[in-house]
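Q&A log
Question type: sequence-to-structure
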Amino acid sequence: MFAGFVKVLPGWIQPEVARYPSQEHLSLTDLLPSVRSSLPRSEPFVILAESYSTTIAIRLAAEAAPNLKALVICAGFIESPIRGLFRVLVSLLAPKFLVSPARIRD
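Response status: OK
Response body:
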């Protein structure tokens, strides 16, 4: 989603894009160590998260990494906005009709 954004960043910004496994169905908790390991150790950084990555970003920010300067949420949510019977219906039908890089459960 951020490919166009990354292309137009000034040269002094060096983005690191955390990518989720596409063949595995991992929970947010399972994904957290992978994303954590991609964070810079000694340089200041900003976390930019979108969609279901928001929960992971908030958890990382809560760990108060000393070099974290900001957390930016773009079109994100902490809980699924889908509720009630519609949520059950979506969870049953989505795997059959949507191709997703990773099905997130937590």
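Response note: Residues 98-106 have pLDDT under 50 and may be disordered.
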